[in-house]
UniProtKB/TrEMBL annotation:
One of its GO terms (molecular function) is ATP binding. This is High-affinity branched-chain amino acid transport ATP-binding protein LivF. Belongs to the ABC transporter superfamily. Pfam families: ABC_tran. The keyword Coiled coil does not apply. Residues 5-239 form the ABC transporter domain. Keywords: Amino-acid transport, ATP-binding, Nucleotide-binding, Transport. PROSITE patterns: ABC_TRANSPORTER_1, ABC_TRANSPORTER_2. InterPro entries: AAA+_ATPase, ABC_transporter-like_ATP-bd, ABC_transporter-like_CS, BCAA_Transport_ATP-bd_LivF, P-loop_NTPase.
Amino acid sequence: MTALLSVEGLRLGYARADVVHGIGLAVQRGSIVSLIGSNGAGKTTILRSLSGLMKPRAGSVRWSHGETVEIAGEAAHRIARRGIVQVPEGRQVFANMTVAENLRLGAYHVATPEAARRQEAVVARFPRLGERLRQQAGYLSGGEQQMLAMGRALMAEPVLLLLDEPSMGLAPLIVEEIFAIIASLRAEGRTILLVEQNASAALAIADYAYVLETGRIRLQGEAAEVARNPEVTAAYLGV
Ligand code: ATP
């Protein structure tokens, strides 16, 4: 089966330093793939390159939604139009704008009636956002801001969602709630690439997983298998 997203030999860096040294990964349609690894391993850098925020130094990124196209180095807005949408680390909602205005930004390219239809779907999934549509996003709790960041991405009706550390800074109960929502997105046929430092939560929800160490894939496999790997349990699962 052709993967929805297929990465080969991806090399990324800042200034003179390479931080990702020619990695490969594949994301099957309708799956959740987790990319785990410690602080500074290069996870965020990989997501930024996939969404077009950073140009790869080498490598190929193939997107197979309909025909297969090479998208490495394409501009961020073109990649977003293809259906690849990132939810950034730290949410990055616009604090001085209302919840509704933040949501509208996720679908800036569609006409207002269509955006309204999409907003209804997002609010059905995140009822708490519905209660706060006219409030400034800066007043939301951390969990609500994460929901808003995900809701804003869903406004674009993405094929592939790139989630960067959705659990960051959130209480365990909220993390559970967010992860249940991520699972429900897969159940609806969306595909998810999930970057997490919370390895146990990420492996529990994922179908397949990659462990990244200092810019290289250290190991990969079915998520349940990766979760049982002694190196992973020792280094990332706090066992
Ligand atoms: P974290 O969970 O802390 O975000 P990460 O696995 O996502 O970790 P990256 O943020 O991708 O890691 O960082 C990978 C490496 O690139 C780190 O050594 C980091 O210091 C470096 N780096 C990240 N952003 C920049 C930047 N803008 N300029 C220079 N170096 C950077």
